[in-house]
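Submission checklist for the structure archive. All mandatory fields must be present; incomplete records are returned to the submitter.

[x] Identifier: Amidohydrolase
[x] Organism: Hyphomonas adhaerens
[x] Residue count: 279
[x] Sequence attached
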Amino acid sequence: MVFNNTDWVWQVQEDILEPEREIVDPHHHLWPSEDMGYQVPDLLADLTSGHNVVQTVFMECGAAYRKDGPDHLKPIGETVFVTDSAAQMKAKGGPYIAALVAHADLRLPLAQLDEVLDGHVDASNGLFRGIRHAGSRDASGATLRIPGHAPPRLYAEPDFRRGVQHLGERGFTYDTWHYHHQNQDYLDLAKACPDTTMILDHFGTPIGVGPYEGKRDEIFEAWKDEMAAIAECPNVHAKIGGLAMPDNGFGWDKRDIPPTSDEVVEQHEHWYDHMIKCF
């Protein structure tokens, strides 16, 4: 799979709307590896391509973990990598990484979880804001480009809920992504952890491939009621993006050229409108 296909993306270029508007990109990744590399020069090229992006928030993606030491502390390597990347960007005087969300296994005993959280704090030079421990799991047999690997019913596990609650007690946020058929479990989690600020990523990832292909309207009808219910939880916020991933099933990744903004609006508008209305 090609994650950094710049040549393909740049086949479609359009005029920037409101180029003066300051933007904070709340969700992006960095990868140091050769096969799916996306590092500071790549990020800066995108951030300075026309829109006035002034700051960003890095979101954990399993990159640059420590290769040795206790397993529960290995995610701190990603925070070290991102903090160094943030310093490189800040030194250039343009857009920069202003915060990061890291990973920890929230099922850990609290003493070990605190060890991880403290490690992220110490390594982040003030950038650390919270944890993403994704709940995504699909047992339909669909061949997913970015499959989730969470255990069944992670959101309902007592140890996991205790960890999410502990984030709130320490003043940290909880990010997650999951699939559309897990929205009810997420709602139950949000109600069980009312003192933790929770951020839902990727619209709850409505799947559009495999057995879900051709069921977009049916999925939307159930999804919109679930989003409305989730939005009633005062501790939940939503980042409205990530609806054009291959697993959403719009098929743009299979084309020779990427979609235009008009094509994206045609397919996405009612999803965005509903999220904005709810949240």
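[x] Structure attached
Curator remark: The chain has a mean pLDDT of 97. The helical segments are 6-9, 40-47, 76-92, 110-123, 158-169, 183-192, 216-231, 261-278.
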